[in-house]
């Protein structure tokens, strides 16, 4: 059963034409379950009905012609109940709707299963039989499992078809809904950066020049065969002859009489070399997977290995240097810092990351750069984005593909409005950060991307509240040396002379991976990351601390921040190593007139456990900084990079706000300096709530600084203190936002803030 399910789903996923995919689906299901009829209906939410899209058993002329309302018939009932309906005599059921055009009079037994994606019913899959019987539990289980697996595949297929139609017609606008990653609106041309060479990441694509693709395929095969020859020679003295025979098998599989012939045929049909290779390799591998003989089943693994090697060489022979469009909308499976470095800042207007969510690091980087971003759009394969004209609406999380000129003009007007609002905020950047009643605030910037530091205005800020040291590590292909780190940290400390610069020690793991230090874990956000990693590798930690302390000579504005602290023992061990590094440097400087300034040490509050140890913590450290991104993630048990649960991740959740309020009260009582360096500080609603709680030091992306200063200068602390009890009494993030919106509306500020 499992192999049949896998084959049916893969066949649907590989077929680029939706109607053909559905036609193959119903035939395969009918044959697998040995029933007399299988049909699939897809939901049309504009028309409020299910349309018969494919059938094997009903009248084929009814396909695309017959629709059933959402509240009509058994199909509508399956959709309403969102669960399987299994009937022995369907025609006797009161919900049964007679539709003569489909010719289903001869069927009695009916089993319908909803196809649901992200809580939305996409369609209904049915099987029918003439015999009056209830379908078995195994049959029902098969259909339910198939429906679950088909959901995302069908969404992909619909998106592919919609994108293809838009690219051909260029008449209607394809609107895609994602997650808002960074605010703003931009218009540009899609530029795709491909992921690593992996069959799962290869999207099926047709081309106009088969001969060119054949040439690329032959070249990759030639390189692969030469590679096998070298491997066979190298292993000849270490493996018995029967084991070495596998290399001969690989040679034979690549020959024209075997896989090679099938791949050539696919290329002649118009598929690009990568797509042809993927289709043939997966087809043959599945055939072996389904065989009973264990030896033959293993050949499926051999075919996949062979295909992967050819794919690697195909990608190596591709032309990697594309001409960048004038206005680049960077599209990638998962946008990384290295990808951003490849695009000149002057040309980069927006980011589309198919994976990730509002608080993934791709989104954080976009906000740091002050450019719009939309996340979580993996329903549309990568190649469909290339060279498309795109409107990216980072406020609403929408992408408009190939928009009409009238729509482009509307969005150009919105971009002009944004520019006017930004100019209004910037006009007050030189003024003090304070409330309307004169209460002072400290506004600092989050930094880490070199490109971001260039846009920071040191004279208008109170320093750097969070310098992410991991990005310089990520941008290299090895650990940076102590000398390299000293040079970098000196520039950062000197960029804000006489002002505090908070440097977070290396915080990798989770969604921040080093290319030269791979960490593979099932639950990376709960695993080996932040201080846990660097304490396990004191050689990394000590070098970084030494570099920071040396860079601070002559500056005296260094604050060291420890990330991912979950208990006091980690603080003690970190302080011991910092003390060790200080003693080492003091010895090195003995006999010189150079003085080593003392750096303040703080802890990042992002793991809930440390929230309950503030009294003990206050006796060990100089300050705390609350990372609201991870704190929200851990309090709500939501992976902030997972678009499937992105709707549950919300820093405005009452539990998060109440935790922040309790920490503020406790920190004030302990006289422990506490700042906010998470994304919440850069949101208008967030900063108002935090200010009402008593927080007065905020660190944010430089792109948000002017807006936040402008807003704070227009509110009184007494007004915020009256707002706070209403906020803390809310039972949902939606209620919180409504309360803040009501407050801003009463102050006539709502229309002057776009968020």
Automatic annotation (TrEMBL):
Residues 17-164 form the GAF domain. One of its GO terms (molecular function) is phosphoenolpyruvate-protein phosphotransferase activity. It comes from the Bacteria. It catalyses: L-histidyl-[protein] + phosphoenolpyruvate = N(pros)-phospho-L-histidyl-[protein] + pyruvate. SMART domains: GAF (SM00065). Its main location: cytoplasm. SUPFAM superfamilies: Enzyme I of the PEP:sugar phosphotransferase system HPr-binding (sub)domain, GAF domain-like, Phosphoenolpyruvate/pyruvate domain, Phosphohistidine domain. This is phosphoenolpyruvate--protein phosphotransferase. Signal peptide: none annotated. NCBIfam families: PRK11061.1 (NF008283), PTS_I_fam (TIGR01417). Its cofactor is Mg(2+). Gene3D superfamilies: 3.30.450.40, Phosphoenolpyruvate-binding domains, Phosphohistidine domain, PtsI, HPr-binding domain. Keywords: Cytoplasm, Kinase, Magnesium, Metal-binding, Phosphotransferase system, Sugar transport, Transferase, Transport. Its EC number is 2.7.3.9. It comes from Rheinheimera soli. It is found in: Cytoplasm. Belongs to the PEP-utilizing enzyme family.
